[in-house]
Amino acid sequence: MKKIYIDDLISCTFLSFTIIIVILNVGMRYFFNSPIKSAEEIATICFIWAVFVGGASCYRKKMHMGIDILTQSLPEKFKIYVELLINIIVMLMNGTFFCLSLKFTIISRVKPTAVLGISSMYVNSSLIIGFGLIFVYSILEIFKNIKTILGKKGDENV
Questions:
Q1: Which of 20, 23, 120, 129 could form a disulfide with 111 if both were Cys (CB 3.0 to 4.6 A apart)?
Q2: How far apart are CA 96 and CA 61, in angstroms?
Q3: Cα three-residue angle 91-96-100, rounded to 5 degrees
Q4: Are 127 and 101 in contact (CB under 8 A)?
């Protein structure tokens, strides 16, 4: 049975809502000359959630963009060390972004959105989820890298 990850479910749901709302709003504007007033803001909020949580999903699946010119030119035994270094940098950066997004979201709780008037905290909490998930996924990747390095060193001694 295929695993269903919550980040995939959240990002796909919000992306689907974005598409549905935009199509519905275009139809209302075209056929009835009466667009849905809050459609743009709802679509934007859904898109923000799809992007940040979807980014975490892409990182987990190793679907993120990368420039591998450096790693391709290295000998095979050094590639795992470069991958470990990259994962440590990603962990540190996303840990920092996670902390900053917590502060930003707390500050934004009193600011309402332009049309719906809901707290911006609900929009900005997608930052916390996205950066937090990438932080956790990078820690898991670091453990995998260390396990691989220790496994390779153990194999060399045999």
A1: 120
A2: 22
A3: 145
A4: yes
Distance, in Å, from the CA atom of 2 to the CA atom of 15, rounded to the nearest integer, reads 21
Following DSSP, what letter does each residue of 106-155 receive, concatenated? HHHTTPBPSSS--BTHHHHHHHHHHHHHHHHHHHHHHHHHHHHHHHHHHH
The per-residue pLDDT for range 31-56, each reduced to its tens digit, is 999 999 999 999 999 999 999 999 99
Residue corresponding to tokens 């030119």: 73
Percentages helix, strand, coil for the chain, rounded to the nearest 5?
Answer: 80, 0, 20
pTM of the model: 0.89
DSSP state of 2: -
Query: In the predicted model, what is the mean pLDDT of the chain?
Result: 93
Q: How many CB atoms lie within 10 A of CB 98?
A: 19
Taking Cα atoms as reference points, which of 37, 52, 45 lies closest to residue 17? Answer: 45
